[in-house]
Amino acid sequence: MTKWWKDATVYQIYPRSFNDSNGDGIGDINGITEKLPYLKELGIDVIWLSPVYQSPNDDNGYDISDYEAIMDEFGTMNDYEQMLLEAKRLDLKIMMDLVVNHTSDEHQWFIESKKSKTNDKRAYYIWHDPKTNGEPPTQWAAAFGGSVWEYDETSEQYYLHLFSKKQPDLNWESDAMRQDVYRMMRNWLDKGVAGFRMDVINMISKDPTYPEGKKLKTGYTDGSPYYFNGPKVHAYLQEMRREALSGYDTITVGEMPNVSVDQAKLYTAEERKELDMVFHFDHVGLGDGELGKWTPKPWKLTDLKQIFSRWQEGLDEVGWNSLYWSNHDQPRALSRFGNDQETYRVKSGKMLATCLHMLKGTPYVFQGEEIGMTNVQFSSLDDYRDLESINAFHELTEKGLLTEEEMMEAIYKRGRDNARTPMQWSNQVNAGFTSGTPWIGVNPNYRTINVHDALAKKDSLFYYYQKLIKLRKTHEIIVEGRYHLLYQDREDIYVYKRVLNDQTLIVLTNFTDQTVTVDLPYQLMMSDCLITNEDEAIEKSDAGYQLKPYGAYVFLLN
Ligand code: TEU
Ligand code: CA
Question: Which atom of ligand 1 is nearest to the CA of 416?
């Protein structure tokens, strides 16, 4: 199969917050179809759609009750097929979110499974007897608060849910369950989708002995060594590739919250026939404290560079990288890694984009990133919608681990709703997202940050992304060049080169609001500048090249 996704750029749509076509306050499929020409203009190749399947929305669609139906709020299967047709006409591919570590507890499989120990769907989920004292098999903490085990009165057993109790984990040990999943995947591929982003796919194989984990601050234990990258995960992915994906020219990316470079090599080495690439979490976890993202500490550029370099070098010859600053679970890229104050917002956004898009791998752009959307601060917890933030607020404040003020500050910095406020299309009411009442508040800065204004300004972030996306198509060195980090100990700049045959690409980025000097041994002024966020050519003094605040340049030396 071709490796068309190597020079492709993927754009992530979080449908609920993208564009509402019928005024009910919720983004929908027809809203997406309407905006496909906008995405075409940006120049992306693939759209990754966060889940659009039938769901009771405990976790905004990551709790699926029917994999073969479209969520009522998002429209109909007919709307979906229209969207696919229109995407095809524009030569845009659609990548679906595959959430098969768990389903909703309202999925027919779980409804059956729960009926009795002898039901033929019982083995589709993970059921365990209580300990002799009635307690659950382990004290493992669930990702969204509380225990991973939920007691079921009817059958007097516990079921496992690594996320919320409305997201029971599927039992991948069941052959029948796996075959049903593969069948479902083939149905979507037959419809014409281009592939899958696989939700927490390195969590599907559990240690069958369910050992107790180490104690956490909350009183629960850490079960993660026993469910990440488990004993059969590679066998399952190879089987999935054989039985669901082979014969289709797909793009696959595995979301992997806990993965090392060495493990990623196993997941993505071509000859092993598992996945094309993975999303690791190393850079988005920078600054995590003892309560993880809820006790954020400042992060260091040298650490970020070390992380990216480890992945660039590690997957240089084996496997392939995916590149991202943000997604629907993360704060906005600019607020997290750049500078979201108006003076430097667009400029630092361009710098971040340069830094990421010149790396080796497939870049992912999260909706709104291309216009420089920022984090939001709602004054009341009532304005938040994400179960992760809401549950953590209650659990951590009730246990006295954080004050309410500290928790709100943490939500402002790292909460998932930062990424989920509506896409800002214009300076009209509700940012042009809906004519009704949006399901989550619009970021009040839509009056200055919106698509309409970005399209009207030649030097906007939007057109800068457009140019970066195009460069990848026209310069093989951006796709294939070998990566080398320069100035690894500097806390202010990220400088690297890419080398292919006799060509060298130099990427210079300043992560600070100060002018800094870099003493490079290259005649940059004489070479081609492929892209920069500055109005002027780079200047050289006796001390070296001058990089202004958040400045970025890319040079091609032949
Ligand atoms: O995310 C997996 C995941 O690890 C995150 O939920 C993470 O725990 C949290 O967001 C960061 O603290 C995937 C989806 O992307 C996410 O939206 C879902 O909630 C989750 O799986 C469950 O399906
Ligand atoms: Ca709608």
Answer: 10
46 shares its domain with 186: yes
42 shares its domain with 76:
yes
Q: Ligand 2 is a single-atom ion; what residues have CB below 5 A from it?
A: 20, 22, 24, 26, 28
> Same domain for 271 and 293?
yes
- Residue 440 tokens read as 């989550």
Q: 95 and 76, same structural domain?
A: yes
Residues 433 and 307 in one domain: yes
Does residue 167 fall inside a structural domain?
A: no
Angle at 152 between CA 149 and CA 155, to 5 degrees: 125
Share above pLDDT 70 across residues of the chain, in percent, rounded to a whole number: 100
Ligand nearest to the CA of 422: 2
Average predicted confidence (pLDDT) for the chain: 97
How many Å lie between the centroid of ligand 1 and the Cα of residue 390? 14
Choose, from 169, 199, 276, 340, the residue flagged as catalytic: 199
Question: Would residue 240 count as lying in a domain?
Answer: yes
Model pTM?
A: 0.98
In a domain, 476, yes or no: no
Ligand 1 pocket (Cβ < 6 Å) reads 59, 62, 99, 143, 163, 199-200, 255, 257, 293, 328-329, 388, 416
Residue 168, in any domain of the structure: no
Distance, C-alpha 293 to centroid of its chain: 16
- Identify which of 200, 293, 384 to mutate to test ligand 1's pocket (most ligand atoms within 8 A of the CB): 200
Q: Report the 10 Å Cβ neighbour count for 94.
A: 21
Say how many domains are in the chain.
3
> Given pLDDT bands bounded at 50, 70 and 90, which one contains residue 1?
low
Which candidate, 38, 98, 131, places its Cα nearest to that of 368?
Answer: 38
Which of 79, 150, 255, 329 is labelled catalytic? 255
Please tell me whether residues 274 and 351 are part of one structural domain. yes
Residue 236 in this model has a pLDDT that exceeds 90? yes
Count how many Cα atoms sit within 13 Å of the Cα of residue 527 in the half-sphere of its side chain: 19
Is 331 in the same domain as 417? yes
Distance 489 CA to ligand 2 centre (A): 49
Ligand nearest to the CA of 32: 2
To 5 degrees, how large is the angle CA 111–CA 116–CA 118? 115
- CATH code: domain of residue 505: 2.60.40.1180
395 C-alpha vs ligand 2 centroid, how far in Å? 33
In angstroms, what is the span from residue 435 Cα to ligand 2's centroid? 10
Condensed to tens digits (0 to 9), the pLDDT of residues 100-151 reads 999 999 999 999 999 999 999 999 999 999 999 999 999 999 999 999 999 9
Mind listing the pLDDT tens digit for each residue in 266-324? Answer: 999 999 999 999 999 999 999 999 999 999 999 999 999 999 999 999 999 999 999 99
Look at ligand 1, atom 9, and give the residue with the nearest C-alpha: 329
Structural domain that includes position 246: 4-102+175-468
* Closest ligand to residue 144's CA: 1
Helix axes 261-268, 233-240, angle to 10 degrees: 30
Cβ(443)–Cβ(374) below 8 Å? yes
Sequence-separated (6 or more) residues with CB below 8 Å from residue 113? 119, 121, 122, 123, 124, 125, 127, 168
The verdict on whether 255 is a catalytic residue reads yes
Distance 513 CA to ligand 1 centre (A): 33
